[in-house]
Amino acid sequence: MYIYIKRFFAVALVATTCLFSVPASADEPTQHEHEKVTESINEEEHKIEHKLEESEAKFDIGSMIMHHIADSHEWEITHGVVIPLPVILYSADRGLEVFSSSNFHNEHHEYNGYHLVHGDSEQIVPVDESRKIYDFSITKNVASMLISAVILILVFTSIASFYKNNKNKAPKGFQSAMEVIILFIRDEVVKPNVGPKYEKYLPYLLTLFFFILINNIMGLLPGSANLTGNIAVTMTLAVLTFIIVHLNANGHYYKHLVKPTGVPVPLLLIMIPVEIVGVFMKPFSLMVRLFANITAGHIILLSLFGLIFIFQSFVIAPVISLFALFLNFIEIMVAFIQAFIFTLLSSMYIGSAIEEHSHADHGH
Fold first, then answer.
1. Which of 208, 360, 356, 224 is nearest to 290 (CA)?
2. Is there a contact between 284 and 345 (Cβ–Cβ < 8 Å)?
3. CA nearest 156: which of 100, 203, 201, 109?
């Protein structure tokens, strides 16, 4: 995966070293000197490649990336600084059990008859395989979600309090910035796509936008959780939109699924399955789009930082760090874009389900 990057940096470093090692006062090199320089470059290149292979073998970048983007029963701020999270288990024979995940910090990762399994995602399983347990533990993603919920509550209660206590006064500071975003979502996203009944769905869509936005930005902070890069979270958000769409859809929406307007009867055998599949593809696309974009951004950034440990060079580290900083700014932009797109598509799906018969026909 990294072989071309390795060779590029290896050749560049060796060529630069050889360039500056040639005396400035030297005359035109002879053929023999050319051969010596070529052999020197080849030897140095082989040495560097061998060193890189050894470094990559010692430093498993794939495991490092998966460790940081996966959920966990503890919150690792940085290497060696870990916050244990509560483990909450329920079983029919023992009832409710609550203890700290730090109890699994032993050679076998076992405690009180339970085993912590490390893999793509951590799982707690009973040592006795005949037992059945239900895991309600506060994992890193759950803790991050609770923190983001508290932030949302504090932000919007403070904004509501400001407007309540300062009626007929222009907002200022943070309230002014938030008002711009709220009005943009209302006037440019929700209102045009949902239609005249937009006020009923505005609280949900605003909550959806700011929940995704805050967690996207929090995911870029060092030592943070990858909440919106967890497909279970994006699936839940997509299912919520799916439920709201189909609980509020009018008769024309359901009629359109079984008898699309203007479609000849013989084609209904093809169109009806296509329409039904399309109903489920909408939330599926919402789920995958957010998950894939956020996860891909984290993997790229972690891969860049991993190259520093693979190359183990003071020359490479500043270059990669600057490039990673640039990508971080791109990721901040992506955080806003993905929150906007999820809210926009949710508004469009709701609007298409509740629009009146005359407006719906006009669209076909």
1. 208
2. no
3. 203
